[in-house]
Amino acid sequence: MINYLKIIRNNYLAVLLVILIGICSYFLSFFVVVGIADPLIISLVIGLVLNIIIPNKRFLKQGIEKLPFLFISIGIMFYGLRNLNFLTVREINPYYVVLLIAVMLTYYFSSIFLGRILGLKKEITYLTATGGAICGASAITVTAPAVEADSDDISISLISVFLAAVFGLFILLPLLAVSANFSNEAYALLSGTVMQFTGFVKASINIMPPLESVLPADEIMKFALSIKAFRYLGLLIAIPLFASLIKGKVFLPWYLGAFLGAGILGTMSVYYQNQFYIDNISYLIKPTYNILW
Q: What DSSP letter does each residue of the chain carry, written as one string?
């Protein structure tokens, strides 16, 4: 069992640096054009820059290696509270549910197949598969402790999924939409189904080419994000599955229960219209887990 209190006490400079990176990354994400840069991607870039300019990092080593997983574990509970909404299943057309499951399975199997062909580490393969199938950087962060990934595994996976998402956003998605003569509904469905980052789903709707209007313009974004929201539920399968594959036996990470419990609590708060939660807590959840991560 890691003694985090001892690590924090002996590595207070690393604690301050980690917290500062989290805060800066979150607020810088508001200033990036079209919002495609996830705070986790920004923090990765900041970390790479600091790794170059700080001459002697030995005094930061233990804190930088251990502390992120403490913050990640806490952030996972807040993430479940905000995003693990079981009401999304009831609201989505059953046909779309089948389509989403098929697409997620395709992501998983193709990523694992390519990972074996290319000789990638299992940790990188599983993180990339989860990031592609579910929700990009967030899914990678949530799954990382379960597969015992180190910082290099997380960084490589984040960069890979981010570059794939950029290609999909600016080239693949518009090309398919125009060449196949999609309606705006089909375009939004495709975006919510395959785009890895929530920010990329929003960006794709904002730069959508002129298409046949089936849904009213003010409903397109909501429809795409509702499709994307369903994919968060895939973490309930991905986390224990990949953790068990790494361990070589059936394994349920301890934080999976906290993640699931937080999701149930958040779902009930929304369903029963808990005004204290809606007015005072819900707006703080996303900044909290983004900064923690």
A: ---HHHHHHH-HHHHHHHHHHHHHHHHHGGGSGGG-S-HHHHHHHHHHHHHHH-S--GGGHHHHHHHHHHHHHHHHHHHHHHH--THHHHHS-HHHHHHHHHHHHHHHHHHHHHHHHHT--HHHHHHHHHIIIIIHHHHHHHHTTTTT--HHHHHHHHHHHHHHHHHIIIIIHHHHHHHTT-BHHHHHHHHHHH-SSHHHHHHHHHTPPS-B--S-HHHHHHHHHHHHHHGGGGHHHHHHHHHHHHHTS----HHHHHHHHHHHHHHHHHHTT-HHIIIIIHHHHHHHHHHH-
